[in-house]
Design a protein that fits this description.
The protein has 266 residues and is α+β, with helices and mostly antiparallel strands. Helices cover 26% and strands 34% of the residues. The longest helix is centred in the first third of the chain and has 64 residues.
Length: 266
C-alpha cells in the first residue's frame, strides 16, 4: 500500500516517454522530408544551371555559325593561283543576310572597297574592277550580320594577275577526199609546245577570208589535249579556198596569236 502513490508517477513518466518518442519520430519524418525538399531544390538549381549553360552554348554556337557559314570563293577561271583582269567572286549561304549588302575588298582585313551588291538570295556575286598591272592581289569580303554588326569574311583569296598568253599552235593541216572536204574536213593540230605550256583549250573556226575568221564555221572550243578535230555538216563549194584558224587559250582566258592554214575543195 505504501508504493501505490508511485503508480500515478509511473503512468505519467510512461506517457511522457511515449510522447517524447512520438515527437522524435515526427521530427525524423520531417527531417527526411526536408532533406527530400532540399535535394529537389538542389536538383532544380542544378538543372537550371545546366539549362542556362546549354542556352549560352547554343547562343555562342549560333553566333559562330553565322560567322562561319558564309563561304567566299573565286568564280573566274584560275590557273594555279592566277586570275584574269576582271575576277568574279561568289558568297554563298546568305539566307540570314537577305536585304543586307555584301562588299568586296582588294586588301586584307576588308580594306579598299572595290564593289558591293545587295543580297537578294542565298548567293551573291561580286566583280572586281579591272586589274591593270601584274602583281599579287588579296581579296576579302564583308557581310553584315542580322543584328547589324559587319563582319569581315575570314577567307583571304590571294592570286596573281596573269596576262601572258599561251604559245600559239605550231601548225595545222587538213585532210580529206572531195566529199569529206565539202562537208566534214578533218583538222590535224601540231603543237610542239603542248608539254611545256598551260594550254587549256583551242578555239577553232573556218572562214573564206585570209585573215582569221569564222564566217563559214563559227569558232568553237575544243580540249587543249586534242590532236585533231572534225567539222561536220558543212556545205563548202568546190574550187574555193577556205582558211582554218586556231588559237590556244589558257585557263584564265588569255588567247594566243592565231595560226591559220588554207585548203581548197577540189
Amino acid at each position: 500500500m505504501k508504493l501505490l502513490w508511485l503508480i500515478p508517477i509511473a503512468l505519467f513518466l510512461s506517457s511522457t516517454i511515449q510522447a517524447d518518442i512520438a515527437l522524435q519520430a515526427r521530427k525524423w519524418e520531417l527531417y527526411k522530408k526536408l532533406n527530400l525538399i532540399m535535394d529537389e531544390l538542389d536538383n532544380h538549381e542544378h538543372n537550371r544551371r545546366q539549362i542556362n549553360r546549354a542556352d549560352r552554348y547554343l547562343q555562342r554556337a549560333y553566333v559562330a555559325l553565322q560567322k562561319r557559314e558564309v563561304e567566299f570563293q573565286l568564280l573566274s577561271p584560275t590557273k594555279n593561283k592566277s586570275i584574269d583582269s576582271t575576277p568574279t567572286f561568289q558568297l554563298t549561304n546568305l539566307d540570314n543576310h537577305i536585304g543586307l549588302t555584301a562588299r568586296l575588298y582588294n586588301g586584307k582585313n576588308c580594306a579598299n572597297l572595290v564593289s558591293e551588291v545587295d543580297i537578294t538570295s542565298d548567293t551573291a556575286e561580286l566583280q572586281a574592277a579591272e586589274l591593270s598591272s601584274d602583281g599579287v592581289y588579296i581579296f576579302t569580303a564583308s557581310v553584315p550580320s542580322p543584328d547589324g554588326e559587319i563582319d569581315c569574311v575570314n577567307t583571304e583569296i590571294e592570286y596573281t594577275l596573269d596576262q601572258t598568253p599561251p604559245p600559239p599552235v605550231s601548225s595545222i593541216y587538213i585532210e580529206g577526199e572531195h566529199d569529206d572536204l565539202t562537208t566534214s574536213p578533218i583538222i590535224y593540230i601540231e603543237n610542239r609546245n603542248r608539254d611545256r605550256s598551260d594550254i587549256h583549250q583551242y578555239r577553232i573556226g573556218i572562214s573564206n577570208q585570209r585573215i582569221g575568221g569564222d564566217n563559214i564555221a563559227e569558232f568553237r572550243n575544243i580540249p587543249g589535249t586534242a590532236e585533231q578535230y572534225q567539222f561536220n555538216n558543212l556545205a563548202l563549194d568546190s574550187g574555193n579556198f577556205y582558211y582554218v584558224t586556231i588559237m590556244s587559250v589558257d585557263e584564265v582566258g588569255n588567247v594566243s596569236n592565231w595560226t591559220t592554214a588554207p585548203f581548197i575543195v577540189y
